[in-house]
Amino acid sequence: MAAKKIVQSLSASAFGRYWNESARPLVSLVFVAPMILVYEGGLFVLGPQALRNGADVWMRRLLESLGFGQYLLLPVLTCGILLGWHHLNRERWRIRWPVLYGMALESIAFGALLLLLARVQSSLLSSAALTAPKSLAISASTSVEQAIAFLGAGIYEELLFRLMLFPAIAMLLKAAGMPRRTSWLTAILLSSLLFAAAHYRLDLMLGNFHLVTSFGDAFAWTSFAFRFVAGVLFATLFLARGFGVAVGAHAMYDLLVWIS
Question: What are phi and psi of 177, to 5 degrees?
C-alpha cells in the first residue's frame, strides 16, 4: 500500500513538472523553431509566388507600412516576443529536452480531437464535409506548398490571434473595470470570433475606411461556427498549455485534414 502511494506521488509529481515545463515560453520557442525554419525556408526556396498564410501576409504588410520591410523581421519578432515573455516571467534558461516529445504527442492528440469535432459537426448538420481552413492568400498549386502553408497557419495565426490579440483584449477589458476571470473569458470569445471571421473575404465600410480582401473563403455559417469553436479550443490551449502546444495542435489539425 505504501509503495502504491509512493508510485502515485511520483507520477503526480512527474506530470506536474511536465505540465509546467511544457508551457514555458522558452520551451515553446524551441518547440516551434523547426516549424518556423521549414515554413520560412520553404517559402524562400519556392520563391515570391509561394503560398503564404494570411496572418503572415497581414503582419508583414503592417510592418512594411511602419517602415520595417525586412524579410526575416516577422520570425525574429516571434522569437523576441517569446524570449521577452520568458524573461519577464523570471523563468530559468534551461530545457528538459524529453518534454518536447510529450508536446508533440499532445499536438497530435488535440489536432485529432479537432478533426473529430469537424467530422461530427459535418455529420450533424448534414452539410458538405468541412476541410482545413484554406490559406488567406492564394490557392495552393502543389502538395509541398500546401504542407508549408499549413505550418505557417499554425505559427502565425497563433502568434496574431492568441499570443498578441488575445492578451491585448483581456488587458483592455480588465483596464475598463471588468473582473479578471470575466475579462479572460470574454477575450477568448472575442478573439475566436475575429479568428473565424479572418478566414473569409471581406467587403466592409468602417466609417470612411473601405476594408476589402480578395482572399479567403466565401462566408458560410457552418464553417464559421466550426472555426469559432476551433478558436476557443486554441485560446484555451494557449492559456492552459502555452503557445507551443497551441501552435502544434493548429498545424497538426491542418495537416491531418490535408492527408485524410
Answer: 105, 5
- Residue 97, Cβ density class (10 Å: 0-12 exposed, 13-18 middle, ≥19 buried): exposed
Closest among 220, 217, 215, 253 to 234, alpha carbons compared: 253
CB of 198 closer than 8 Å to CB of 219: no
Confidence tier at 7 by pLDDT (50, 70, 90):
very low
Look up residue 206 and give its three cell numbers.
468602417
Quote the DSSP letter at residue 201: -
Task: Please write the tens of the pLDDT for every residue from 106-125.
Answer: 999 999 999 998 888 877 77
Q: Which of 33, 138, 130 is nearest to 76 (CA)?
A: 33
Q: Which pLDDT score is estimated for 207?
A: 62
Report whether 22 contacts 238 (CB < 8 A): no
Of 248, 257, 258, 254, the closest CA to residue 108 belongs to 248
